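Ticket #4471: structure output looks truncated?

Reporter: J.K.
Steps to reproduce: submitted the chain below (190 residues) through the standard prediction queue, then opened the result file.
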Amino acid sequence: MADAATAPSTGTAPHGSTGPAETRRDFLKLTTAAMAAVGVGAVVWPFIQSMNPSASVLALASTEVDLAPITEGQSITVMWRGKPVFVRHRTADDIKAANDVALNTLPDPQADGARVQKAEWLVMIGVCTHLGCVPLGQRPTDAKGDFGGWFCPCHGSHYDTSGRIRRGPAPRNLDVPEYTFVNDTNIRIG
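Returned output as attached by the reporter:
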């Protein structure tokens, strides 16, 4: 019977120890996993980036409007986020007409003071709340409806000098965007 110390050597390491073959195998596994992770990242990254807003959208996130050149009684239209925004420098008569309305007679009751930050400046999104048309009333020659504000000829919605729905199928008032006065003659919409 042969002694364990005198047993012939097979040239392999005993079970459980790491030899040159196992070290190489571990290195190849780690390298392959790292390359796979880099490959997945290279494929997924463009999809993640495509979900970020484009530069043109970020540029439209807010817009500044100079109010100085707008004379009393004049309206202008500016674009913000692809929508027209009506800015009207209201006259004393416009403000009085807006304040003299009994709120209980309005389909969408809202006080004029809740729609403006300064009584002489009305800022609202110029999209009819019925089906998304752009109401008339910005130009001096436009029909302003029965209440001196805006009129949507597509379906007959009439808005008053505060942009509130007074007659027609529109379910609510013209929307007021978020805006702030930067100073006395400039506003930032958005």
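Triage note (M.O.): checked the attachment and the full token line is present. Residues 20-50 form the longest helix (31 residues).
Status: closed, working as intended.
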